[in-house]
């Protein structure tokens, strides 16, 4: 069975949604009790961010995100023969680390909306959101440190190293925003995306492998699988940031363009050497892009080949991910859940 | 030998400065190599914050702070019979955690000056300072997670729990600033100071005990010693924030009053029920305090008894600290370094 065959099977199976549901069912009690252990105001900010309460503290039925990272932890542990439930603290930890980055990224990027709701810093103020993010990172590492499972020490080390990489990615992302349209290369941009997105998806898979007692090589292959799938995910996410349906994304159409974001398809277009790329650079030189400019910019990215490139690159990254997965989990049957998840993140409708 | 005798001896010995020097000598190589492992821009922000480089990246001869927390780790380990050098990663970890809080607190409090230099966020911008702080917290936990010492897992758990407490303290501190002059009780203020300052000094001592292989009770007594000494330290620090010599503090005189800070002596004055307390409340109701107002406010704190109360409370907390220390380390000879440090932090000239 080739990688492509397996991807096909996973797609037909369409089990990712059920898998994510199951993950939330298993992980949410741990996640929620961990967050609820926070004192007073920190708890309220964190619970609002997760969608569990409204700004006034009353219960909400919102959802804490898709739980892709926790699902990767459980699926990786399961693929290597462990009981996924044994890795539940690892799953909660990566979700906490992910949400720590969201809280801080929203501050740094001055984003006002996430998951169709006002971001935490706009509701509670920057200081409280910043400190709640700090607490969430500390919780992520505490939930592992308190875990009696023999893998927890290695998992802590891996997650802490991953958070350093996430920070480097976020810092690079901010630095790129301040540079001119031709001053960011596509390679720099891919390296930033790997640090900002790939690293945590890789760490999620690596944590699952560690909880399954895997050896160094399997852990490394799992990490590489997650990283490559993460890059594919980021490429798709960047496409959604330009052409996504606001109904699905919870953000206005073309939000990334309006924010002058140097996302992967944009940088591909800017560095394409095409007339459409030059057009895009002229649009990005304007301090403010109105609705029509955003539409023109999206069209320029497409004509400069940025959209096609991103789609092809996402496919290529997925192929690499599947190769790494076959190294980590030679039995295709055992890899089914991980395949479903990888397919899911790269085939989201937009 | 009574606690008072011992305190007297430590003071005469005056060994704290030498102890802090020795600590920096032992811990700085670990601290520096850990910080230098950060990628690019994060490294520069962190190194600037520690005083190792100027804003342009050229080497500086500044000092990374007094290293009180690392000294507590090493002294606690030594007091319980361990080789202090074995706890060097624990010492580096608490210093990283401390500096993470400084980086973020400066952002949240909009402080422009620290250690006689512009704060990192004023030099590098809020986003880079925020993310560098995040990375420093991750490093603190990574330096423990990577430590092969058998105590490192328990140390990680303790430090992660402590950081949650630090966050709660910082959040409470911010919340108090927004409340009216009579809306913060002295008890709330003491609880906040315990979380914001006592917790990390307590955790430093507890980490030292863990590295010495101490039992639960000794670790708890060491934690309590550090917490009480930490409260004494905070009380003195608050006095310095009002009456400190700018030459020593690196901050303008009365900086805390100008910032309407509800520090412990201020809250003691505000809740004193005295005419001077009411005067202080009127001054604090002004949106801006000029130089003369700051002088009047300091005088009002003093006349309302805030200064005397803080000094007496600091003495009381020190007595409790010494009691806890005698529980953790029954041999007074072995406790000498910890005593020197506790005396040092509560007898700083201002």
TrEMBL record, chains A, B:
<comment type="similarity">
    <text>Belongs to the FPP/GGPP synthase family.</text>
</comment>
<keyword id="KW-0808">Transferase</keyword>
<feature type="region of interest" description="Disordered">
    <location>
        <begin position="1"/>
        <end position="21"/>
    </location>
</feature>
<dbReference type="GO" id="GO:0016740">
    <property type="term" value="F:transferase activity"/>
</dbReference>
<dbReference type="Pfam" id="PF00348">
    <property type="entry name" value="polyprenyl_synt"/>
</dbReference>
<dbReference type="InterPro" id="IPR000092">
    <property type="entry name" value="Polyprenyl_synt"/>
</dbReference>
<protein>
    <submittedName>
        <fullName>Family 2 encapsulin nanocompartment cargo protein polyprenyl transferase</fullName>
    </submittedName>
</protein>
<dbReference type="InterPro" id="IPR008949">
    <property type="entry name" value="Isoprenoid_synthase_dom_sf"/>
</dbReference>
């Amino acid at each position: 069975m080739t990688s492509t065959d397996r991807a096909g099977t996973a797609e037909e199976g369409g089990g990712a949604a059920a898998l994510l549901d199951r993950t939330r069912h298993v992980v949410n009690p741990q996640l929620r009790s961990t967050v609820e252990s926070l004192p007073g105001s920190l708890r309220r900010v964190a619970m609002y961010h997760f969608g569990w309460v409204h700004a006034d503290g009353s219960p909400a039925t919102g959802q804490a995100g898709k739980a892709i990272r926790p699902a990767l932890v459980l699926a990786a542990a399961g693929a290597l023969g462990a009981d996924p439930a044994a890795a539940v603290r690892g799953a909660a930890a990566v979700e906490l680390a992910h949400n720590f980055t969201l809280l801080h990224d929203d501050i740094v990027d001055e984003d006002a909306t996430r998951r169709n709701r006002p971001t935490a810093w706009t509701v509670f103020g920057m200081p409280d959101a910043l400190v709640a993010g700090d607490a969430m990172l500390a919780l992520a590492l505490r939930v592992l440190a308190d875990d009696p499972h023999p893998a927890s020490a290695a998992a802590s080390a891996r997650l802490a190293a991953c958070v350093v990489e996430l920070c480097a990615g976020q810092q690079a992302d901010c630095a790129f925003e301040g540079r001119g349209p031709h001053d960011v290369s596509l390679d720099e941009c891919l390296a930033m995306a790997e640090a900002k997105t790939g690293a945590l998806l890789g760490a999620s898979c690596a944590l699952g492998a560690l909880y399954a007692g895997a050896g160094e090589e399997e852990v490394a292959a799992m990490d590489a699988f997650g990283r490559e799938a993460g890059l594919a995910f980021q490429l798709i996410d960047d496409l959604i940031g330009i052409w996504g349906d606001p109904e699905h994304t919870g953000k206005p159409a073309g939000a990334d363009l309006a924010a002058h974001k140097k996302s992967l398809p944009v940088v591909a277009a800017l560095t394409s050497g095409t007339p459409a790329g030059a057009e895009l650079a002229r649009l990005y030189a304007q301090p403010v892009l109105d609705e029509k400019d955003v539409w023109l910019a999206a069209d320029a990215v497409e004509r400069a080949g940025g959209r096609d490139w991103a789609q092809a690159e996402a496919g290529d990254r997925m192929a690499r991910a599947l190769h790494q997965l076959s190294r980590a989990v030679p039995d295709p049957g055992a890899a089914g859940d991980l395949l479903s998840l990888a397919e899911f993140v790269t085939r989201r409708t937009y």
